[in-house]
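Incident log, structure service

09:12 report received: a user says their structure output differs between two submissions of the same chain.
09:20 pulled the input from the user's history:
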Amino acid sequence: MKLPLKNSKGGDVGEVEVRDDVFGRRMNSAVIHQVMVGQLANRRQGTAKTKTRSEVSGGGAKPRPQKYTGRSRQGSIRSPQWKGGGTVFGPIPRSYRQRTPKRMRRLSLVTTLSGMVREGRLIVVDQLTVDQPKTKDMVQVLSALSVGASVLLVADGATQEVLRCAKNIPRVKTVPSSALNTLDLLNHRTIVMTLDAVRGAESLWAGSFVRKAKPNAESDAADDSEQDFADDEPVAEVAAVEPEASAEAADDVADAEDAGDEADSEDADADESEADDKADADEDQTDEEEAAESDSDDASDDDETVEK
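09:34 re-ran on a clean worker, output below:
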């Protein structure tokens, strides 16, 4: 989109091409309100403090007897209902800070700028200069630009004398483009920006917000796999250069595996025969024990017969 360009005398000198994603965004009042509330909350010091009845000096003795006076029962002159007593539920030091996301602050800023462009409250000048470094000359420049009752002057590229003259004017605030914020834009009727300030705002706030990528486990695994593949390449080259040696080595490995299998089968057969022998010995021992028990039973029967 294009905006009219003026000089310090208030005359038109042409048009300037600006980015739509900074000066042509649609209104988003909800975001603007939330950012404004966050900025106002962050300004609060949170140091207000009142004393409770335990913190007020005095009140150690009971003011009057409990009974027989005809008056109310009181235990301390520092109770909340007494003059000079403590405060109930008063403020205590606390933090009112609100953390507003960067994307929300960015969206609120460009949305507010776009709204001021639509309302005709944004004035772009090629250069901000004065004939003499005097406050009355700066007043004349602002009057020529037909500004409102309050002015936010974003004068990137202006000299220190010009900025010093503008600081002496009531309800005129000077900020660089890097310090633009939603609250300052809302608190001033007119925004005067130099061409350098417009380009600076576009370089800062144009485009979409992209968060920097962080290394993760997947990228590390990919790097490890690439390293493993690189380590395997020399082996493949050696195998390709010496095919006969690799074939002989493969035969030796196969023979060794066959010998290992035969040894394992022999060990298994030996274990099976040893287990069978142990089982036969257990059966013989069991038969002998049963025979001994039967003999002892016969002997006991004979003893009973003799006694009879």
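09:41 both user submissions now match this output. Likely a transient worker issue. Closing.
09:42 reviewer note: The two ends are 135 Å apart (CA to CA). Residues 243-307 form the longest helix (65 residues).
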